[in-house]
Amino acid sequence: MKHPLRWAALAVGVVVAIFAIILAVNVGTDPRADLNTSRLLGKPAPDFSLTKFDGTELKRSDLAGKTVIINFWNSWCRPCRDELPVLQQWYRAHRTDESVVMVGIPRDDSTRAIRQAARDDQMSWAVANDQGAKSATLAFATRGQPESFVISPRGIIVGSVLGPLTPATMDQMVRVGKRNG
Amino acid sequence: MRATLGILGIAIGLGASGVGIALLLRGVLRNDVAAMRAGRACVFVVLAGALVSVAAMEWALLTHDFSIKYVAENNARSTPTLFTITGLWAALEGSILLWSLILAGYLSFTAHRFRRRLADPMVGWALIVGLTVSLFFFLFMAVAANPFTLVEGLVPLDGRGPNPLLQNHPLMAFHPPMLYLGYVGFTIPFSFAMAALITGRFGEGWLADTRRTTLVAWGFLTAGIILGAWWSYEVLGWGGYWGWDPVENASLLPWITGTAFIHSVMVQERRGMLRVWNLSLVIATFALTILGTFLTRSGIITSVHAFSQSTIGPWLLSFLFLVMASGIGLIAWRADALHAPGRIDSPVSREAAFLANNLLFAGLAFVVLLGTVFPLLAEAVRGSTLSVGAPYFDRMTAPLGLLLLFLMALAPALPWRATSGEVLQNRLLVPAYVGAVTMVFTLIVWTRDWSTVLGFGLAAFAVAAITRVTFVAVRARRRADSVGWARALGRTVAGNPRRYGGLVVHLGVVAIAVALAASGSFGIKRQVRLTPGQSVTVGAYTVTFVKLHTRANAQKSSVSADLAIVRGGDRLGTYSPAISSYRNANQGIGTPSVRTGAFEDLYLTLVSSRSGRGRVTVGIQVQSMTVWIWIGGGLMALGTVIALAPRLRRRPAEHPLPGEARPGELVGAEPS
Amino acid sequence: MNRPARRLAWIGLGVIVLGIVVGIAWPSPAESRSEHVRRLALEFRCVDCEGLSVAESATASAAEQRRDIGVRIDRGETDDDIRSAYVELFGENVLLRPATNGVGVLVWALPIGVVLLGGIGIFVALRRWSRQPRLVSTDDDDALVAELRMPHHDD
């Protein structure tokens, strides 16, 4: 180890080895695992002001004291279509339940396509694609579609799911929402 | 049948690589020429194996043999023939197959070229190293990334077809093969560098042996990168050509170190210095090609083109580790003998400029590498990711790039060893004035953005310096030979193609630098909604939406908007950006329509045609000087070709005495 | 070109360069609102695209974010306020240019450090080399050469 070049080679080797170990540890892990949870969890839900298809306004304050499920969707997104039966089934089962409300907010779509899809699929929970909806997609820090949130009766975001809902996650979301009431 | 043939080809390649290594090892260790000869023959068998496999894959693609999983996933009956052929590099397994074929090609070329130096241990070891790389890739295909895996269960009636982005533009036929020809070509200088370390002959011999191959690889890599940028511009629809995406960075990294190497070898050739540095650069370049493949193909980083396949990660990582460990180990082992004699006499000399050049290139490579992997490192350290994007890379690379441009302007005026300040002042005065005047002009007419002003000024400085040095040489040749300017220029270039090819490459770099400097400051970007017949004015252009077209075939259905363009009363024609929906994908893929001009491009995209009432949303961008990137790329390719030309030895007959003209030849006349 | 003329030419060039520096550094008119929005939008990662900034993306969420940046500017929020508001919403990875506090400082400091160290190394080496005397002929050597070159008178 007399020659200075050997020390240099050793130093480079150590750096490369550390680098390789970090890469090796990272292989196979989802590079965006930490992006899948919303940073809004545990925080008060942002205000929003939406327009229903019948023209009436739907404000955050109107829903105080209820468990609110917010579902961001698009007419053209395939995973959104995949979860539609889950939403429809849940909606039918809870239509008369005054303590829970579901709201479907369009995320990146045209006004016409949203209106048509909501009519064709009887998505009575969906709202119009206006500035209020656009503001909500940013206020909820949505990162894709579908993305769903549950707001507790006290107004805290207590759960979020990025990607299509299953009957199980749907039930769990409502349970968590009510428990935190 | 086709799958069997393909697997047979892989087996042949794998076997021949292994046997070749064994025979060549026996040859070099025991001085057994017969074994060497047999080992060399194995290289050609590897090529044959790779050819059989690639032919089997193309055959399977063209006949839509969906019993092969790769074909079923990357081809459909409706896929046009061109994209059926390019299906070979539409996904990981096929790309590795193409990689193996190119590697076998380069190795065979090397084995053929050095056929008379078969007993030379340097050549023997280089082939052993090259075949080891080949062994890895064939083994990789045989075990982890087999392109000929059959589908499970029933053979599907139709395949999924390639990713829409890969069947949207004919450039896809050229960009990936060019890139691979570049990537893989660096295996040859790497093999010789390792051979030099093993045999202890790390003088200038291995550099001379690999100079041309290195240049070929570099030229292909350059062309591949530029074509990739062009593809992005023509397909992705955001108006840019370079996004500092991990995959783009992965192709840029070996280019940077390769470029540094091409410059620093000249110092070793002339002065015998920088031996360790050159060996390290070559090893780093090869390792970076593997690292790039690992980063982009293992799914460790998400990016536009990343394929996520975590099973191949450990393979590539192990190979990378092997490359780095053997490279560093060999340098450490040879440390005592590697010390080179020689020194640099003066800071005002060509070799000192090359040192500065290499420092800047090394800095550039470090910035790009660190920025690309930093999200991973940050995640490892603190558990949450962060992003490193264009604003970081732009800010860090711009000063380095401008300094390199400055060196490029300075270098042709600097002689080897040392020079007096007076000579240098004489040589630089006019180019420096050209640069300064350009800056003043830019400042007054265009912009006050410092990077643009400096970029334009240094570009003009560099062009003037290159023109001056060429002019002086041509004028001298013209006087000496009493010929016309054109002939004198031809003779000057033919007399030292390496130098003048290099200068042409530099002109290409200047063109690209100008385009990059311009892109920072000028540009308009608008998104407008138009009803049929409605017009909008953006910059100097008036864009009128004429009508919407819908077209559908088995491959895709497209909606395109006809937009009539008028500038200053001149009709520039109708351009039709489109959105295509492919059968196999959710989201529409945009096809921009670009009106290219010398100073600005009008870049049109169809953002949405769903707004109702026949309205469309159109993206309109005015981009400055983008075309100079493609022109610069062309110049760089041309310069590389010139630099590869053999030096012409001048015959005495070409020195006619003054006034003694040969029939039909103009003397001293300037060609019109 | 003779010496004084050349000196004059270089002084002229120096004056021009000084003028250019002043021209660049002269305070420019305040940036317009749209320039301000674009400058900030370039710093944020578009959350539902791959590797594009909010300024370059055509998605609805990017458009909304551009609008929101404008609203925030109108409201009088500083650039740092806007940055931290988005970090609060989406996390640190929304910034395409890593912040210079925390781990992020390394991605800026390391390359600068490496290039500076390399530069100093080359500078030191060049100085050491130029201090080592080159092999120059002494007076004795010159005399010897002169003597050998001299025609031999005794012939």
Commentary on this structure:
The complex is a heterotrimer of chains A (181), B (672) and C (155). Chain A is α+β, with helices and mostly antiparallel strands. Chain A has five helices and six strands, in the order αβββαβααββα. Chain A has helices spanning 4-26, 78-94, 111-120, 131-139, 167-179; strands spanning 49-51, 57-59, 67-73, 100-106, 147-151, 157-162. In chain A, α2 (78-94) links the parallel β3 and β4 (100-106). Chain B is 61% helix and 11% strand. Chain B has 20 helices and ten strands. In chain B, the strands form two sheets. In chain B, strands 2, 3, 4, 5, 6 and 7 form a six-stranded antiparallel sheet that branches. Chain B has a four-stranded antiparallel sheet with strand order 1-10-9-8. In chain B, α10 (246-271) packs antiparallel against α14, α14 (350-382) runs antiparallel to α15 and α15 (390-410) runs parallel beside α17. Chain C contains six helices and no strands. Chain C is elongated and about 90 Å long. Chains B and C meet through α14, α15, α16 and α17 of B and α1 and α5 of C.
Any descriptors?
heterotrimer; A: 181 residues; alpha+beta; two-stranded antiparallel ribbon; 6 strands; 40% helix; 17% strand; elongated; C: 155 residues; mainly alpha; 0% strand
Question: What is the structure about, briefly put?
Answer:
The complex is a heterotrimer of chains A (181), B (672) and C (155). By secondary structure, chain A is α+β, with helices and mostly antiparallel strands. Helices cover 40% and strands 17% of the residues of chain A.
- Oligomeric state of the chains in view: heterotrimer
Largest sheet of chain A: 4 strands, mixed
- Annotation, overall tally of beta strands of chain B: 10
What's the story with the biggest beta sheet of chain B? 6 strands, antiparallel
Order of helices and strands of chain B: HHHHHHHHHHHHHHHHHHHEEEEEEEEEEH
Give me the secondary-structure topology.
The complex is a heterotrimer of chains A (181), B (672) and C (155).
Chain A: H1 4-26, E1 49-51, E2 57-59, E3 67-73, H2 78-94, E4 100-106, H3 111-120, H4 131-139, E5 147-151, E6 157-162, H5 167-179
Parallel strand pairs in A: 3-4
Antiparallel strand pairs in A: 1-2, 3-5, 5-6
Chain B: H1 2-30, H2 33-62, H3 69-74, H4 81-85, H5 92-113, H6 121-143, H7 175-185, H8 187-199, H9 205-235, H10 246-271, H11 275-297, H12 313-333, H13 335-338, H14 350-382, H15 390-410, H16 421-445, H17 450-481, H18 485-495, H19 497-521, E1 523-530, E2 535-538, E3 541-552, E4 556-567, E5 570-575, E6 578-582, E7 589-591, E8 593-595, E9 600-608, E10 616-624, H20 627-644
Antiparallel strand pairs in B: 1-10, 2-3, 3-4, 4-5, 4-6, 6-7, 8-9, 9-10
Helix pairs in contact in B: 1-2, 1-6, 2-5, 2-6, 5-6, 5-7, 6-8, 7-9, 8-9, 8-11, 9-10, 9-20, 10-11, 10-14, 11-12, 14-15, 15-17, 16-17, 17-18, 17-19, 18-19, 19-20
Chain C: H1 3-25, H2 33-41, H3 60-74, H4 79-90, H5 105-131, H6 139-149
Helix pairs in contact in C: 2-3
